[in-house]
Write a structure and sequence with these properties.
This protein has 17 helices and 14 strands. With 492 residues, the protein is an alpha+beta fold. The strands form 2 sheets. The protein has a 12-stranded antiparallel sheet, sandwiched between helices. The chain has a two-stranded antiparallel ribbon with strand order 13-14. Strand 13 and strand 14 form a beta hairpin. Helix 13 packs antiparallel against helix 14. The N terminus is likely disordered. Keywords: Signal.
Length: 492
Protein backbone atom coordinates (compact mmCIF):
# COMPACT_ATOMS: atom_id res chain seq x y z
CA UNK A 1 0.00 0.00 0.00
CA UNK A 2 2.77 2.39 0.84
CA UNK A 3 4.86 1.47 -2.21
CA UNK A 4 2.56 4.05 -3.74
CA UNK A 5 2.28 6.03 -0.54
CA UNK A 6 6.07 6.04 -0.50
CA UNK A 7 6.98 6.04 -4.20
CA UNK A 8 4.72 8.89 -4.92
CA UNK A 9 5.45 10.98 -1.96
CA UNK A 10 7.96 13.22 -0.31
CA UNK A 11 10.15 15.87 -1.75
CA UNK A 12 11.64 17.97 0.66
CA UNK A 13 15.82 27.19 10.62
CA UNK A 14 13.72 28.39 11.42
CA UNK A 15 10.20 29.49 11.28
CA UNK A 16 7.37 28.77 13.61
CA UNK A 17 5.22 25.67 13.21
CA UNK A 18 2.21 27.80 12.44
CA UNK A 19 3.98 29.55 9.59
CA UNK A 20 5.36 26.31 8.11
CA UNK A 21 1.99 24.58 8.30
CA UNK A 22 0.22 27.57 6.76
CA UNK A 23 2.75 27.65 3.93
CA UNK A 24 2.13 24.01 3.06
CA UNK A 25 -1.64 24.46 3.22
CA UNK A 26 -1.43 27.47 0.89
CA UNK A 27 0.83 25.64 -1.55
CA UNK A 28 -1.62 22.73 -1.55
CA UNK A 29 -4.37 25.02 -2.89
CA UNK A 30 -2.33 25.46 -6.10
CA UNK A 31 -2.23 21.74 -6.90
CA UNK A 32 -4.55 20.00 -9.41
CA UNK A 33 -7.85 18.85 -7.93
CA UNK A 34 -7.79 15.38 -9.51
CA UNK A 35 -4.76 14.31 -7.45
CA UNK A 36 -5.19 11.33 -5.15
CA UNK A 37 -2.00 11.82 -3.14
CA UNK A 38 -0.11 14.63 -1.46
CA UNK A 39 3.29 14.90 0.20
CA UNK A 40 4.76 17.66 2.34
CA UNK A 41 8.30 18.12 3.66
CA UNK A 42 9.40 20.97 5.94
CA UNK A 43 13.15 20.71 5.43
CA UNK A 44 14.03 23.75 7.53
CA UNK A 45 12.21 22.30 10.54
CA UNK A 46 13.82 18.88 10.02
CA UNK A 47 17.31 20.36 10.04
CA UNK A 48 16.58 22.51 13.09
CA UNK A 49 15.38 19.52 15.14
CA UNK A 50 17.25 18.27 18.20
CA UNK A 51 18.33 15.04 16.49
CA UNK A 52 19.52 16.90 13.38
CA UNK A 53 21.77 19.16 15.48
CA UNK A 54 23.09 16.21 17.49
CA UNK A 55 23.95 14.13 14.41
CA UNK A 56 24.95 17.01 12.11
CA UNK A 57 22.24 16.30 9.53
CA UNK A 58 22.86 19.49 7.57
CA UNK A 59 26.30 18.33 6.42
CA UNK A 60 24.99 14.79 5.83
CA UNK A 61 22.09 16.17 3.84
CA UNK A 62 24.47 18.27 1.76
CA UNK A 63 26.57 15.21 1.03
CA UNK A 64 23.63 12.95 0.17
CA UNK A 65 22.16 15.63 -2.07
CA UNK A 66 25.43 16.48 -3.83
CA UNK A 67 26.03 12.76 -4.46
CA UNK A 68 22.51 12.34 -5.85
CA UNK A 69 21.46 9.79 -3.22
CA UNK A 70 18.44 11.94 -2.41
CA UNK A 71 16.90 14.73 -4.45
CA UNK A 72 16.11 17.14 -1.63
CA UNK A 73 18.45 20.14 -1.20
CA UNK A 74 19.13 21.38 2.35
CA UNK A 75 18.22 24.95 1.39
CA UNK A 76 14.64 23.96 0.62
CA UNK A 77 12.19 25.13 3.30
CA UNK A 78 8.83 23.72 2.27
CA UNK A 79 7.92 21.36 -0.54
CA UNK A 80 4.41 20.21 -1.42
CA UNK A 81 3.76 17.59 -4.10
CA UNK A 82 0.51 16.15 -5.42
CA UNK A 83 0.16 13.31 -7.88
CA UNK A 84 -2.30 10.95 -9.53
CA UNK A 85 -1.26 7.33 -9.07
CA UNK A 86 -2.67 3.94 -10.02
CA UNK A 87 -1.55 1.48 -7.32
CA UNK A 88 -2.67 -1.63 -9.21
CA UNK A 89 -0.19 -1.08 -12.05
CA UNK A 90 1.67 0.64 -10.27
CA UNK A 91 2.23 3.93 -12.05
CA UNK A 92 2.39 7.65 -11.49
CA UNK A 93 0.24 9.38 -14.12
CA UNK A 94 1.47 12.87 -13.29
CA UNK A 95 2.97 14.86 -10.42
CA UNK A 96 2.89 18.58 -9.69
CA UNK A 97 4.83 20.40 -6.98
CA UNK A 98 5.37 23.82 -5.42
CA UNK A 99 8.61 24.69 -3.62
CA UNK A 100 10.30 27.78 -2.30
CA UNK A 101 13.84 28.86 -3.14
CA UNK A 102 16.29 31.23 -1.39
CA UNK A 103 15.86 34.90 -2.18
CA UNK A 104 19.31 35.11 -3.79
CA UNK A 105 18.55 32.27 -6.21
CA UNK A 106 16.88 32.68 -9.62
CA UNK A 107 15.43 30.18 -12.05
CA UNK A 108 18.00 31.30 -14.63
CA UNK A 109 20.78 30.26 -12.24
CA UNK A 110 19.13 26.94 -11.56
CA UNK A 111 18.78 26.26 -15.30
CA UNK A 112 22.38 27.30 -16.00
CA UNK A 113 23.85 25.08 -13.29
CA UNK A 114 21.87 22.08 -14.56
CA UNK A 115 22.92 22.70 -18.20
CA UNK A 116 19.31 23.46 -19.21
CA UNK A 117 18.15 26.18 -21.58
CA UNK A 118 15.54 28.72 -20.56
CA UNK A 119 12.18 28.53 -22.33
CA UNK A 120 8.79 30.17 -21.90
CA UNK A 121 5.88 28.10 -20.64
CA UNK A 122 2.43 29.63 -20.08
CA UNK A 123 4.06 33.07 -20.45
CA UNK A 124 6.46 32.37 -17.57
CA UNK A 125 10.21 31.68 -17.44
CA UNK A 126 10.84 27.95 -17.33
CA UNK A 127 13.21 25.14 -18.26
CA UNK A 128 12.98 21.41 -18.86
CA UNK A 129 15.17 19.03 -16.85
CA UNK A 130 17.19 16.18 -18.29
CA UNK A 131 14.39 13.80 -17.24
CA UNK A 132 11.74 15.85 -19.05
CA UNK A 133 10.06 17.55 -16.07
CA UNK A 134 9.14 21.22 -16.41
CA UNK A 135 10.27 23.78 -13.81
CA UNK A 136 8.50 27.13 -13.90
CA UNK A 137 9.14 30.39 -12.04
CA UNK A 138 6.32 31.71 -9.85
CA UNK A 139 6.11 34.98 -7.88
CA UNK A 140 7.57 35.37 -4.38
CA UNK A 141 10.58 33.08 -4.86
CA UNK A 142 8.67 29.94 -5.66
CA UNK A 143 9.10 27.30 -8.34
CA UNK A 144 6.51 24.94 -9.77
CA UNK A 145 7.43 21.50 -11.10
CA UNK A 146 5.43 19.18 -13.36
CA UNK A 147 6.11 15.72 -14.74
CA UNK A 148 5.99 13.94 -17.13
CA UNK A 149 7.15 16.31 -19.83
CA UNK A 150 3.75 16.88 -21.48
CA UNK A 151 4.04 20.53 -22.39
CA UNK A 152 0.34 21.15 -22.97
CA UNK A 153 -0.68 19.61 -19.64
CA UNK A 154 2.04 21.46 -17.76
CA UNK A 155 1.08 24.79 -19.34
CA UNK A 156 -2.61 24.24 -18.60
CA UNK A 157 -1.86 23.70 -14.93
CA UNK A 158 0.42 26.76 -14.70
CA UNK A 159 -2.24 28.95 -16.33
CA UNK A 160 -4.83 27.69 -13.85
CA UNK A 161 -2.85 28.75 -10.77
CA UNK A 162 -4.48 32.15 -10.49
CA UNK A 163 -7.98 30.99 -11.36
CA UNK A 164 -8.96 29.56 -7.99
CA UNK A 165 -10.13 26.34 -9.67
CA UNK A 166 -7.48 24.13 -8.04
CA UNK A 167 -8.29 22.47 -4.76
CA UNK A 168 -7.29 19.12 -3.35
CA UNK A 169 -9.93 16.95 -1.69
CA UNK A 170 -10.72 17.69 1.97
CA UNK A 171 -8.91 14.47 2.97
CA UNK A 172 -5.66 15.53 1.25
CA UNK A 173 -5.97 19.16 2.35
CA UNK A 174 -6.23 18.02 5.97
CA UNK A 175 -3.04 15.99 5.55
CA UNK A 176 -1.22 18.91 3.91
CA UNK A 177 -2.06 21.17 6.85
CA UNK A 178 -0.61 18.75 9.41
CA UNK A 179 2.18 20.05 11.64
CA UNK A 180 4.59 17.10 11.30
CA UNK A 181 7.90 17.47 9.48
CA UNK A 182 7.03 14.96 6.74
CA UNK A 183 3.51 14.05 5.65
CA UNK A 184 2.47 11.58 2.95
CA UNK A 185 -1.15 10.80 2.20
CA UNK A 186 -3.03 8.80 -0.41
CA UNK A 187 -6.80 8.81 -0.89
CA UNK A 188 -8.21 5.33 -1.52
CA UNK A 189 -11.97 5.78 -1.88
CA UNK A 190 -13.37 3.27 -4.43
CA UNK A 191 -9.86 1.89 -5.01
CA UNK A 192 -10.56 -1.73 -4.07
CA UNK A 193 -12.59 -4.46 -5.75
CA UNK A 194 -14.31 -6.15 -2.81
CA UNK A 195 -14.75 -9.47 -4.65
CA UNK A 196 -11.04 -9.58 -5.40
CA UNK A 197 -10.23 -8.72 -1.79
CA UNK A 198 -12.39 -11.58 -0.58
CA UNK A 199 -10.59 -14.06 -2.84
CA UNK A 200 -7.21 -12.59 -1.94
CA UNK A 201 -7.78 -12.96 1.80
CA UNK A 202 -9.30 -16.43 1.55
CA UNK A 203 -6.42 -17.83 -0.50
CA UNK A 204 -3.49 -16.00 1.10
CA UNK A 205 -1.85 -18.30 3.66
CA UNK A 206 -0.73 -15.31 5.70
CA UNK A 207 -4.40 -14.85 6.71
CA UNK A 208 -5.07 -18.54 7.37
CA UNK A 209 -5.53 -17.99 11.11
CA UNK A 210 -7.90 -15.05 10.56
CA UNK A 211 -10.37 -16.54 8.10
CA UNK A 212 -13.26 -16.14 10.53
CA UNK A 213 -12.74 -12.37 10.53
CA UNK A 214 -13.02 -11.93 6.77
CA UNK A 215 -16.84 -11.55 6.55
CA UNK A 216 -16.66 -8.73 9.08
CA UNK A 217 -13.56 -7.17 7.51
CA UNK A 218 -14.82 -6.87 3.93
CA UNK A 219 -17.51 -4.20 4.59
CA UNK A 220 -14.91 -2.22 6.52
CA UNK A 221 -12.36 -2.41 3.68
CA UNK A 222 -14.99 -1.34 1.16
CA UNK A 223 -15.31 1.91 3.16
CA UNK A 224 -11.54 2.63 3.13
CA UNK A 225 -10.91 6.37 2.81
CA UNK A 226 -7.13 6.63 2.74
CA UNK A 227 -3.75 6.20 4.42
CA UNK A 228 -1.59 8.96 5.87
CA UNK A 229 2.00 8.70 7.09
CA UNK A 230 3.33 11.44 9.38
CA UNK A 231 6.93 11.71 10.56
CA UNK A 232 8.06 14.05 13.30
CA UNK A 233 11.62 14.49 14.54
CA UNK A 234 12.76 15.62 17.97
CA UNK A 235 15.33 13.53 19.85
CA UNK A 236 14.27 10.55 17.71
CA UNK A 237 12.33 9.89 14.51
CA UNK A 238 8.68 9.12 15.24
CA UNK A 239 6.25 7.83 12.64
CA UNK A 240 2.48 7.50 12.67
CA UNK A 241 0.48 5.68 10.00
CA UNK A 242 -3.27 6.33 10.10
CA UNK A 243 -5.63 4.15 8.08
CA UNK A 244 -9.04 5.81 7.76
CA UNK A 245 -12.37 4.12 7.04
CA UNK A 246 -15.94 5.25 6.55
CA UNK A 247 -17.17 2.81 9.22
CA UNK A 248 -16.10 2.10 12.78
CA UNK A 249 -13.11 -0.25 13.00
CA UNK A 250 -14.15 -2.06 16.16
CA UNK A 251 -12.21 -5.29 16.87
CA UNK A 252 -10.69 -5.46 13.34
CA UNK A 253 -7.65 -3.31 14.13
CA UNK A 254 -5.17 -6.18 14.32
CA UNK A 255 -6.07 -7.67 10.95
CA UNK A 256 -5.99 -4.17 9.41
CA UNK A 257 -2.36 -3.91 10.53
CA UNK A 258 -1.64 -7.37 9.07
CA UNK A 259 -3.20 -6.34 5.78
CA UNK A 260 -1.16 -3.13 5.71
CA UNK A 261 2.13 -4.97 6.35
CA UNK A 262 1.41 -7.65 3.73
CA UNK A 263 0.58 -4.96 1.19
CA UNK A 264 4.00 -3.41 1.80
CA UNK A 265 5.65 -6.81 1.51
CA UNK A 266 3.84 -7.62 -1.75
CA UNK A 267 5.08 -4.43 -3.36
CA UNK A 268 8.66 -4.81 -2.12
CA UNK A 269 8.73 -1.57 -0.11
CA UNK A 270 8.97 -2.93 3.41
CA UNK A 271 10.10 -0.75 6.30
CA UNK A 272 11.24 -3.07 9.05
CA UNK A 273 9.94 -0.97 11.95
CA UNK A 274 6.33 -0.92 10.70
CA UNK A 275 5.87 -4.61 11.55
CA UNK A 276 6.61 -3.78 15.21
CA UNK A 277 4.30 -0.75 15.36
CA UNK A 278 1.83 -0.27 18.20
CA UNK A 279 -1.85 -0.48 17.16
CA UNK A 280 -4.37 2.11 18.37
CA UNK A 281 -7.97 1.88 17.09
CA UNK A 282 -10.10 5.01 17.46
CA UNK A 283 -13.53 5.30 15.90
CA UNK A 284 -13.17 4.99 12.12
CA UNK A 285 -9.38 4.84 12.14
CA UNK A 286 -6.46 2.59 13.02
CA UNK A 287 -3.15 4.23 13.93
CA UNK A 288 0.23 2.46 13.87
CA UNK A 289 3.03 4.20 15.76
CA UNK A 290 6.74 3.40 15.88
CA UNK A 291 10.15 5.02 15.77
CA UNK A 292 12.29 4.88 12.64
CA UNK A 293 16.01 4.47 12.16
CA UNK A 294 18.01 7.06 10.23
CA UNK A 295 18.37 4.47 7.45
CA UNK A 296 14.62 3.90 7.18
CA UNK A 297 13.96 7.64 6.99
CA UNK A 298 16.66 8.05 4.36
CA UNK A 299 15.22 5.12 2.40
CA UNK A 300 11.77 6.70 2.41
CA UNK A 301 13.15 10.07 1.32
CA UNK A 302 15.27 8.44 -1.39
CA UNK A 303 12.11 7.40 -3.20
CA UNK A 304 11.46 10.99 -4.17
CA UNK A 305 12.57 12.00 -7.64
CA UNK A 306 12.07 15.79 -7.81
CA UNK A 307 13.28 18.04 -10.63
CA UNK A 308 17.04 18.10 -10.17
CA UNK A 309 18.35 21.38 -8.75
CA UNK A 310 21.97 22.26 -7.98
CA UNK A 311 23.75 22.71 -4.68
CA UNK A 312 23.48 26.16 -3.15
CA UNK A 313 27.27 26.62 -3.19
CA UNK A 314 27.17 26.50 -6.99
CA UNK A 315 25.28 29.81 -6.97
CA UNK A 316 28.00 31.63 -5.05
CA UNK A 317 29.79 33.09 -8.07
CA UNK A 318 29.62 32.74 -11.80
CA UNK A 319 32.94 34.55 -12.38
CA UNK A 320 36.06 32.49 -13.14
CA UNK A 321 39.47 34.10 -12.46
CA UNK A 322 42.01 34.11 -15.25
CA UNK A 323 44.22 31.00 -15.29
CA UNK A 324 47.33 29.85 -17.08
CA UNK A 325 47.14 26.76 -19.29
CA UNK A 326 48.80 24.71 -16.55
CA UNK A 327 46.39 26.01 -13.91
CA UNK A 328 43.43 25.33 -16.19
CA UNK A 329 44.55 21.75 -16.82
CA UNK A 330 45.11 21.18 -13.11
CA UNK A 331 41.69 22.64 -12.31
CA UNK A 332 40.04 20.40 -14.91
CA UNK A 333 41.75 17.33 -13.45
CA UNK A 334 40.67 18.36 -9.94
CA UNK A 335 37.06 18.88 -11.08
CA UNK A 336 37.05 15.48 -12.77
CA UNK A 337 38.43 13.77 -9.66
CA UNK A 338 35.83 15.42 -7.39
CA UNK A 339 32.98 14.61 -9.78
CA UNK A 340 34.14 11.01 -10.08
CA UNK A 341 34.41 10.58 -6.33
CA UNK A 342 30.94 12.09 -5.86
CA UNK A 343 29.46 9.80 -8.50
CA UNK A 344 31.14 6.67 -7.13
CA UNK A 345 30.15 7.55 -3.55
CA UNK A 346 26.52 7.91 -4.63
CA UNK A 347 26.45 4.55 -6.41
CA UNK A 348 28.35 2.89 -3.56
CA UNK A 349 25.91 4.29 -1.00
CA UNK A 350 22.93 2.87 -2.87
CA UNK A 351 24.55 -0.55 -3.27
CA UNK A 352 25.41 -0.66 0.44
CA UNK A 353 21.93 0.47 1.46
CA UNK A 354 20.33 -2.29 -0.60
CA UNK A 355 22.66 -4.80 0.99
CA UNK A 356 21.72 -3.53 4.46
CA UNK A 357 18.02 -3.63 3.64
CA UNK A 358 18.32 -7.17 2.38
CA UNK A 359 20.21 -8.27 5.50
CA UNK A 360 17.70 -6.73 7.91
CA UNK A 361 14.54 -8.14 6.32
CA UNK A 362 13.48 -11.75 6.64
CA UNK A 363 12.57 -11.94 2.97
CA UNK A 364 14.72 -10.47 0.20
CA UNK A 365 11.68 -9.99 -2.06
CA UNK A 366 10.47 -7.25 0.30
CA UNK A 367 13.17 -4.95 -1.16
CA UNK A 368 11.92 -4.94 -4.77
CA UNK A 369 10.84 -1.29 -4.63
CA UNK A 370 14.24 -0.14 -3.38
CA UNK A 371 16.01 -1.88 -6.30
CA UNK A 372 13.84 -0.07 -8.83
CA UNK A 373 14.15 3.25 -7.01
CA UNK A 374 17.94 3.15 -6.82
CA UNK A 375 18.21 2.11 -10.46
CA UNK A 376 16.32 5.27 -11.36
CA UNK A 377 18.47 7.34 -8.98
CA UNK A 378 21.71 6.12 -10.58
CA UNK A 379 20.41 6.86 -14.07
CA UNK A 380 19.64 10.43 -13.02
CA UNK A 381 22.95 11.18 -11.31
CA UNK A 382 24.92 14.09 -12.72
CA UNK A 383 27.67 12.79 -15.02
CA UNK A 384 29.33 16.14 -15.62
CA UNK A 385 33.15 15.71 -15.55
CA UNK A 386 32.78 11.98 -14.80
CA UNK A 387 34.80 9.68 -17.13
CA UNK A 388 32.70 7.66 -19.55
CA UNK A 389 34.20 4.43 -18.22
CA UNK A 390 32.87 5.17 -14.72
CA UNK A 391 29.45 6.27 -16.01
CA UNK A 392 29.13 3.08 -18.05
CA UNK A 393 29.84 0.96 -14.98
CA UNK A 394 27.31 2.96 -12.96
CA UNK A 395 24.62 2.50 -15.60
CA UNK A 396 25.45 -1.19 -15.75
CA UNK A 397 24.84 -1.44 -11.99
CA UNK A 398 21.49 0.33 -12.45
CA UNK A 399 20.58 -2.20 -15.15
CA UNK A 400 21.55 -5.02 -12.81
CA UNK A 401 19.31 -3.57 -10.07
CA UNK A 402 16.42 -3.83 -12.54
CA UNK A 403 17.47 -7.37 -13.42
CA UNK A 404 17.35 -8.26 -9.72
CA UNK A 405 13.88 -6.71 -9.55
CA UNK A 406 12.66 -8.97 -12.36
CA UNK A 407 14.20 -12.01 -10.72
CA UNK A 408 12.58 -11.19 -7.37
CA UNK A 409 9.22 -10.97 -9.13
CA UNK A 410 9.65 -14.46 -10.55
CA UNK A 411 11.15 -13.94 -14.01
CA UNK A 412 13.98 -16.32 -14.78
CA UNK A 413 17.30 -14.73 -15.66
CA UNK A 414 20.54 -16.30 -16.81
CA UNK A 415 24.07 -14.90 -16.83
CA UNK A 416 25.97 -15.34 -20.08
CA UNK A 417 29.27 -17.04 -19.22
CA UNK A 418 31.37 -15.36 -21.91
CA UNK A 419 30.49 -11.72 -21.41
CA UNK A 420 28.49 -11.83 -18.16
CA UNK A 421 25.49 -10.46 -19.99
CA UNK A 422 22.00 -10.98 -18.63
CA UNK A 423 19.63 -13.24 -20.56
CA UNK A 424 15.93 -13.35 -19.73
CA UNK A 425 13.98 -16.60 -19.89
CA UNK A 426 10.39 -15.71 -20.67
CA UNK A 427 9.13 -19.25 -20.24
CA UNK A 428 7.98 -18.08 -16.82
CA UNK A 429 4.64 -16.48 -17.60
CA UNK A 430 4.43 -12.83 -16.59
CA UNK A 431 0.83 -13.56 -15.71
CA UNK A 432 1.81 -14.53 -12.19
CA UNK A 433 4.26 -11.73 -11.60
CA UNK A 434 3.29 -9.13 -9.00
CA UNK A 435 -0.04 -10.58 -7.89
CA UNK A 436 -1.12 -8.12 -5.24
CA UNK A 437 -3.84 -6.75 -3.06
CA UNK A 438 -4.73 -3.93 -5.45
CA UNK A 439 -6.30 -6.33 -7.92
CA UNK A 440 -3.34 -6.34 -10.28
CA UNK A 441 -2.12 -9.85 -11.03
CA UNK A 442 0.97 -9.05 -13.03
CA UNK A 443 1.56 -7.44 -16.36
CA UNK A 444 -0.52 -9.84 -18.45
CA UNK A 445 -3.76 -11.38 -17.26
CA UNK A 446 -4.59 -14.32 -19.57
CA UNK A 447 -2.87 -16.97 -17.45
CA UNK A 448 -4.40 -15.80 -14.18
CA UNK A 449 -7.95 -16.54 -13.10
CA UNK A 450 -7.95 -14.56 -9.89
CA UNK A 451 -11.19 -16.07 -8.66
CA UNK A 452 -9.69 -19.53 -8.34
CA UNK A 453 -5.90 -19.77 -8.44
CA UNK A 454 -4.40 -16.86 -6.53
CA UNK A 455 -2.57 -19.13 -4.10
CA UNK A 456 -1.23 -21.20 -6.99
CA UNK A 457 0.00 -17.97 -8.54
CA UNK A 458 1.82 -17.06 -5.34
CA UNK A 459 3.36 -20.52 -4.97
CA UNK A 460 4.64 -20.50 -8.55
CA UNK A 461 6.04 -17.04 -8.11
CA UNK A 462 7.75 -18.03 -4.87
CA UNK A 463 9.23 -21.11 -6.54
CA UNK A 464 10.56 -19.00 -9.41
CA UNK A 465 12.12 -16.54 -6.96
CA UNK A 466 13.84 -19.35 -5.04
CA UNK A 467 15.10 -20.91 -8.27
CA UNK A 468 16.63 -17.58 -9.30
CA UNK A 469 18.83 -17.21 -6.22
CA UNK A 470 21.93 -18.55 -7.97
CA UNK A 471 21.59 -16.02 -10.78
CA UNK A 472 21.03 -13.20 -8.27
CA UNK A 473 24.20 -14.18 -6.39
CA UNK A 474 26.16 -13.94 -9.64
CA UNK A 475 24.63 -10.54 -10.41
CA UNK A 476 25.59 -9.23 -6.96
CA UNK A 477 29.13 -10.53 -7.47
CA UNK A 478 29.32 -8.55 -10.73
CA UNK A 479 27.95 -5.45 -8.99
CA UNK A 480 30.62 -5.73 -6.29
CA UNK A 481 33.29 -6.23 -8.96
CA UNK A 482 32.17 -3.13 -10.90
CA UNK A 483 32.02 -1.07 -7.71
CA UNK A 484 35.57 -2.10 -6.78
CA UNK A 485 36.80 -0.96 -10.21
CA UNK A 486 34.93 2.35 -9.89
CA UNK A 487 36.47 3.04 -6.48
CA UNK A 488 39.98 2.39 -7.82
CA UNK A 489 39.45 4.89 -10.62
CA UNK A 490 38.01 7.45 -8.17
CA UNK A 491 41.16 7.50 -6.01
CA UNK A 492 43.67 7.72 -8.87
Amino acid sequence: MIRICLTLVVLFGCVSSARADKTAAVYATFLPNDANSVSVVHMDRILSSQLAHKEDWTDKQNQLFSEGHIGLPPWLKTFVLASLVHPAVPEEVWAAAIMDIPEDMTIQQVASKTNASMITLADKPAFQTSTGAYVVELPDHKLAGYRPGHRQDAAAWIRSLGSGTNSLSPYLMKAAASEEHVVMSIELIDMFDVDFLKTHLEQDKRFASQQGLIPRLLPLLSSLQGVTLKISINDQINSEVTIDFGDEVGPSAAIVKTLFITALDDTGASIEEFSKATITPAGNSVTLTCSLSDQSLQRILSLIVPPRVPEQKLFASSETPEQTAEESAAKQKEDEQKATQRYVNAVSGMVEDLQRASANLDNYTKTIAWHETYAKKIEQLSTRNVPKEVVDMGLDIAAKFRTLTRSLRGQQVQIGAENKSVVYDYKVSPGYINANIWGGAGYSAPTVNWTSNLQEVREKQAAAVIAGQSSRDKIWAEIDDSLTKMKKIAIQ
